[in-house]
Amino acid sequence: MTDNRILLLGFDAVEGRMVIARNNPDDARHVVVLVPGVSADVHSMGTLTRRAEDLFRKLAAHHEDDTISVITWMDYVAPRSAREARDAKYAAAGAPRLATMLAQMPVTAEVYGRYRAAARTTVIAHGYGGLVAGLAAKEHGLRTDALVLLGCPGSGVRSANELGLDGRVYATPSDRDGDGTPLDVHGVRPDDPAFGAKVLRPGPLSNQGDPLVRYVPELRPIVLGRN
Length: 227
Hints:
Elements: E1 6-12, E2 17-22, E3 30-35, H1 45-59, E4 68-74, H2 89-112, E5 120-126, H3 129-140, E6 146-150, E7 168-171, H4 174-177, E8 198-199, H5 216-223
Parallel strand pairs: 3-4, 3-5, 5-6, 6-7, 7-8
Antiparallel strand pairs: 1-2, 2-4
């Protein structure tokens, strides 16, 4: 499915999993992969894709800028509540699919893409989504140039080094921008100095209910490779 801007990259009707991209990632120079957390499902895709579009417009030079692609990755069954988010099984099931997609992206870009080269990739994982990304990195390897743990109370590891990433790891406070995932369940808080991530500074509070908005000034240089 495409209208030259929106592409359906994956869909599982049985489990309600879905992956949607704003612009073709194969033809982009910069790709953002958004990994949502608690309560993310097909019924929330409208909100999630609107957030992706809003982020795209804040990052792009103009509305038709197709050098940037923003992917909403909901290729796992997310926990429905804070209580369910205490269980890592949801993240463990989704982690290999996230790792596989990120491993395949540079291959398809080099074969089919406009630039015949891999894009710079940034994964932004919100709340419980940070556990999905953390387990993907720790257990399967995560091909990304930067990982942002947005409002994530735990990514399944004790330190950023355990993620084994070549790229840099960033974090924001989980008690301010989290999704309800309990603290002290899935490892050390990524915004703890002992974790070793670079902690991003928030801007003014947003009334849009979008945790990304207040960090856009910090995210822009990360996504574009200027930080």
